[in-house]
Amino acid sequence: MYTQAIDLPQGTKDEAARGPRSLKEAEYEAEFDARIARGDFIEPKDWMPEAYRRTLIRQISQHAHSEIVGMLPEGNWITRAPTLKRKAILLAKVQDEGGHGLYLYAAAETLGVSRDEMTEALLSGKAKYSTIFNYPTLTWADIGAIGWLVDGAAIMNQIPLCRCSYGPYARAMIRICKEESFHQRQGYDLLLTMMRGTDEQRALVQDAVNRWWWPSLMMFGPHDSESMHSGDSIKWGIKRISNDDLRQKFVDATVPQAKVLGVTLPDPDLKWNEQRGHWDFGKIDWDEFWAVVNGHGQCNRDRLAARVKAWEDGAWVREAAVAYAAKQAQRERRAA
Ligand code: FAQ
């Protein structure tokens, strides 16, 4: 996800409404802090510190890009789904992800950034999106592993966002989490079905789990000590639970599910720690994580090229919509 630095418009038209410069900033800030402390939602027309607004635009737009780019790895298998039922499920899931991207772009727009600016940031490679979508989907079992592990990690991260302090983001997340829950279950069901099949199918599942496990743990972001935004985001009630705590919750929830499934998680250091009451797990390869974040993953180039092509191929639709709107406006003017 995630932009190094989205160039946000300075002094947008909404700025005056949001933060009257003539009155004391400190008073507004104190009221904002009090609202955060009370657990109230901040709404689009409320005053907010500029840094809060920018952090939200960064996170929400990157989240939206992730949903849109995230359609690609699974979309790759729609034509090859093994049954009509699996094809219908996969189609619905991929469409859901597209819908999530749209709610999230709309939520980000309420902060004064335009859809065009966000799209430009993605297509120019300035914006980040989740590292996880830069890994290839090599077999049908990968579709199950994405549902189980990737959507599972996404839900773990996104449930606390339903209580984030920015109203439009929190409300979008409620619906998104409901849909992600179906995504996670269909993935687990797909894998269970394969595990009840042939030795070859079981081997495909194990291979997919081996490849998706570590990248799924990376979805939660760097360690808390390396997470540059966590301090502010937790202070502002955007993040409710830290990167490492969410990652630990995900590992604790997933280990028993792996046992039921009958797969081995590819980590020799995975061990129940009686004292902590949590599963210990091995060291994440942070060099790999940062390489993927910085554009050097297996599929970064292909993913971006696919989005650029979709944008260019869709130019005629945008032009037709603008021409239609202009015609409608002309008709209305004539009728008036
Ligand atoms: N990939 O200081 P922090 C989905 C960046 S789920 C790439 O810890 P923050 C559903 C981070 O942006 C996936 N970059 O940052 C689906 C920052 O760089 P920046 C989407 C990453 O924001 C399933 C820098 O590292 N979910 O799409 C990653 O406080 C299946 C320092 O990091 C969300 O976006 C990463 N994994 O915490 C769809 C959830 N991790 O921006 C299709 C909302 C970190 O300064 C199929 N986002 N970075 O240039 C969040 O909760 C947060 O943004 C975190 C990162 C937790 C991801």
Structural commentary:
A hairpin with a 4-residue loop joins strand 1 and strand 2. A two-stranded antiparallel ribbon has the order 1-2. Residues 1-19 have low confidence and may be disordered. The chain has 336 residues and is an all-alpha fold. The chain has helices at 15-18, 25-38, 50-69, 71-75, 84-109, 115-123, 140-158, 167-195, 199-218, 230-235, 243-261, 286-293, 300-313, 315-335; strands at 271-273, 278-280. Helix 7 packs antiparallel against helix 8 and helix 7 (140-158) crosses helix 11 (243-261). Phenylacetyl coenzyme A (FAQ) is lined by residues 1-4, 58-59, 62-63, 66-67, 70, 97, 128, 130-131, 146, 150-151, 154, 157, 218-222, 227-230, 233, 243, 293.
Fill in the keyword field for this structure:
336 residues, mainly alpha, two-stranded antiparallel ribbon, globular, disordered N terminus, binds Phenylacetyl coenzyme A
How are the SSEs ordered, and which strands pair?
Elements: H1 15-18, H2 25-38, H3 50-69, H4 71-75, H5 84-109, H6 115-123, H7 140-158, H8 167-195, H9 199-218, H10 230-235, H11 243-261, E1 271-273, E2 278-280, H12 286-293, H13 300-313, H14 315-335
Antiparallel strand pairs: 1-2
* Average pLDDT figure: 93
**Low-confidence segments:** 1-19
- Helical residues, percent: 55-70%
Q: What bound compounds does this protein have?
A: Phenylacetyl coenzyme A
Class computed from helices, strands and strand pairing: mainly alpha
Overall body shape: globular
What is the straight-line distance between the termini?
A: 47 Å
Task: Give the count of helical stretches.
Answer: 14
SSE order, as H and E? HHHHHHHHHHHEEHHH
